[in-house]
Amino acid sequence: MNPNCLQEKMLDVIPGLRESLDANAAKRNLALALRTVRKRVGLTQKDIAGKMSVSQAAISKLEAPTGSMPMTDTIQRYAAACGVVAVIGFHLPSGTESFEEDEIAAAMI
């Protein structure tokens, strides 16, 4: 069975699952971005933990797809430990007018 088909069936059958997934979408996306950056620069969770002076378990929690969103300064410290810069960007929902290039810029945090 196609995994996407199975997921859709589960979303239809399990009450509240779709809403729960939607509510955690931002944290899941951030967690994926954090893990992707860390792996791309060739570091382990233990490496990042050492650079941030926190436990490996704390890094695991940051990279988890559920739970609370980390503070901006925590994301900034994580990025610095990876040797990158964190940037906040904005996207309009599809179907809406786009920003003019000079109206908005991504902010480095």
Walk me through what this model shows.
- The protein has 109 residues and is mainly alpha-helical.
- The protein has a single domain, classed as Orthogonal Bundle (434 Repressor (Amino-terminal Domain)), CATH 1.10.260.
- The protein has helices at 3-13, 17-23, 25-40, 45-52, 56-62, 72-82, and strands at residues 87-88, 107-108.
- A two-stranded antiparallel ribbon has the order 1-2.
- The model has no long low-confidence stretch (mean pLDDT 84).
- Residues 34-88 form the HTH cro/C1-type domain.
- This is Helix-turn-helix domain-containing protein.
Give a quick account of the main beta sheet: strands, pairing sense, barrel closure: 2 strands, antiparallel
Instruction: Indicate the CATH topology.
Output: 434 Repressor (Amino-terminal Domain)
Domains, number: 1
Q: What's the CATH class label?
A: Mainly Alpha
Average pLDDT confidence is 84
Which parts are unreliable, with pLDDT below 50 for 5 consecutive residues or more? none
One letter per element, helices H and strands E, the order comes to: HHHHHHEE
**What oligomeric state do the depicted chains represent?**
single chain
State which percent range the strand residues make up: under 5%
Number of strands: 2
Name the CATH architecture: Orthogonal Bundle
Secondary structure category: mainly alpha
